[in-house]
Write a structure and sequence with these properties.
The protein has 161 residues and is an all-alpha fold. It has one domain (2-160). Helices cover 70% and strands 0% of the residues. It has seven helices and no strands. The protein has helices spanning 2-7, 19-23, 25-34, 39-68, 78-94, 103-121, 136-160. Helix 3 (25-34) packs antiparallel against helix 6 and helix 5 runs parallel beside helix 7. The relative contact order is 0.17.
């Protein structure tokens, strides 16, 4: 039961429709909650969440491949948690002023939309990363989507704010 809760981000991956969208929300909520404490604590939290969720994704890969019968099941969204955390980490590192209210709302919305678009469409090189074995492909495509979405959101918000 613990592995199921961890790999589905507390059961968010079991929600329908669009489990990946539900799984991308925890970093958004944590960023909103942490924003008032300033950029540094928020960035540290996002870095820790990126690493922690990424480690869980790769470590749990053999279990969820057997449990769900596929290497990248839709219900497994811990990879989205890691990717969205990286996205917000990059966006806020580029534009730390975006941590202030109400800027953080717009920054997280822009980052969230960009991340989901890239995660769903999987343009090159994002889609090709899924082929990496042993759970790494499950994680790497989301980290790549998070990187590019975070870069886009950070550059846009640094220009905007």
């Amino acid at each position: 039961m613990t592995r199921l809760l961890l790999s589905t981000a507390g059961g968010l991956g079991l929600l329908r429709p669009a489990p990946g969208t539900w799984g991308s929300l925890p970093p958004v909520a944590l960023t909103m909650a942490m924003a008032s404490s300033g950029p540094t604590p928020t960035l540290l939290m996002l870095a820790a969440l990126t690493v922690f969720a990424g480690i869980l994704c790769v470590m749990l890969a053999p279990w969820y491949a057997v449990h769900f019968g596929q290497t990248d099941p839709g219900a497994v969204v811990i990879d989205e948690v890691s990717g969205m955390s990286l996205c917000l980490l990059i966006a806020l590192a580029i534009a730390p002023e975006a941590c202030a209210w109400p800027n953080v709302i717009w920054t997280t919305v822009i980052a969230f939309v960009l991340f989901r678009l890239l995660d769903i469409a999987k343009p090159p090189p994002i889609g090709t990363l899924q082929q990496v074995p042993r759970g790494w492909g499950v994680l790497l495509d989301d980290l790549a989507a998070g990187f590019f979405a975070g870069l886009g959101a950070g550059l846009f918000t640094s220009w905007w704010f």
